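user: Please review this fold.
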Amino acid sequence: MEKRTVTMAGNPVTLLGKEAKVGEKAENFNLTKQDLSNYNFDESKGKIRIISVVPSIDTGVCELQTIDFNQRASQLKDVEIITVSLDLPFAQSRFCAAKGIDNIVVASDYKDREFGLKYGFLIDELKLLARGIVVVDRDDTIRYVEYVSEVTNHVDYDKAIEEAKKLI
């Protein structure tokens, strides 16, 4: 398998797992919700989904990414937005309460890093997720993918929303 790299604060890091590509079927995965219950990606079958991937909600760019998608979610009919990080569910819960995050699912991949590996976002050296976006249509086909080349940079919010709107 080809080694894929991005940078974090200018330093190269290796991404583990299979790169998600447009046109492929989106794989099912499990996350842990803030109340420690299981979130299964198949729960949102039949909806358009935007998976917003962040290293940690405790950093400025990740915070803004999560807040931005939470605000945009109310304008998108029949679109589910899922923010995934490796933060513990307790930290996610505290963050969401403090920032009024209530329009999106915020869940953790901390247990098995299943999402990170299945979608190729797990950073080997740091065991954090790289930043990015995956848009999945109603039929579980990946329609847009962004792996941010420098993890401290923002995703292209407008492009992700534009791609999701094409599917509505």
Notes: The helical segments are 60-73, 89-99, 114-118, 157-167. The chain has one domain: 4-167. The longest strand covers residues 79-85. The chain has a mean pLDDT of 96.
